[in-house]
Every structure is written in structure tokens, then in C-alpha cells.
Amino acid sequence: MHQDGGVLANNPTAIGLHECRQLWPRTPIHCVVSVGTGRMAHLPQHSTPAVEPRYSSTFDKLYQAVVSATDTEKVHTILNDLLPPNTYYRTNPYMTKSYNLDDTAPDTLDQMTLDGKLYVRKNEAKLKAIALRLMQPKTYIQALKDRINHKLACYGY
After folding, report:
1. In which element (H, E) is residue 126 found?
2. Distance CA 65, CA 77 (A)
3. Which of 87, 142, 150, 157 can bridge 138 by disulfide, Cβ–Cβ 3.0-4.6 Å?
4. Domain residue limits at 10
5. 106 exposed, middle or buried (CB, 10 Å; 0-12, 13-18, 19+)?
6. E-strand spans in 3-157?
7. Does a structural domain hold residue 80?
8. How far apart are CA 90 and CA 68, in angstroms?
9. pLDDT level of residue 51 (50, 70, 90 thresholds)
């Protein structure tokens, strides 16, 4: 079975954090911004029977695996709980409809633009907080720690 990165890690933020820890193990994470590609409003869940069938179809199992693997919001929830306050931010606008990745029709692009503008308008405070956090200069102590860690890395301590 062939699987692409989108199925295995549809929200690769956790993988990126892991790679950062591997490259800079002594450096605390200052800010993480996860940029989503948009999501649909939650649809009502189908009711499940009181007693599950003993065996479900292969299609049902495959469908549940894909839904679980492509759920970007689970990664968001976990990172939001694990990282310190004011460190992790996620932007992921609601979309009015589902879009195909290769859809370049003018009306589709216009609707995407409207969805994006609505998200920016509703989340102005959040976006300003992200910008302020990203532009925040290092404190003297942080800069000193960075210098010490750099020297330790260069001289093998």
C-alpha cells in the first residue's frame, strides 16, 4: 500500500518540533505557528448502533484510518496542551465548502479569498498576538544562553 506524507502527517507540526529538538536540544521553543489549509464546520456525527457489529467492512476500517490519520485538529489539541502558554498558535480558517487541491476556477478562488478575509477579520487579535510574539526580541539572558550553547556545541562540551 502506498501512503503519502499527507496521509501519515497531515499536520506536520509535531514532526517539525521533533526535528527542532534534534537540531537544537538546549534551546527552548519560543514560538510555533501552525498554518492550516482550512476546515469545514463540524457535521453531525452519524449515530452508532448500541451494539457494534462483530466485524466491520474493510471499507469502513480503511475510511476510519484515513479520517484518523488526516485529522489535523488532534495534533493541534495535543500541542496546545503540551507547549507553554503563548508559544503555540494555530490558524485554520473555516471554509464555506470543500475545495479540491487543483481547483483554480475563478469563482472558487474568489470564495477562498472571502473565507480568508472573514477569518482574518474574526481573528484579528489572535493574528496580532502571533505577530508580536514572532517579533519579540530575545532577552539578554536568552542571548547569553544562546552564546554559551553555541560555544559548547563548537568546542564539544
Report:
1. helix 124-135
2. 19
3. 142
4. 5-41+51-155
5. exposed
6. 32-35, 39-40, 88-91, 94-95
7. yes
8. 19
9. low
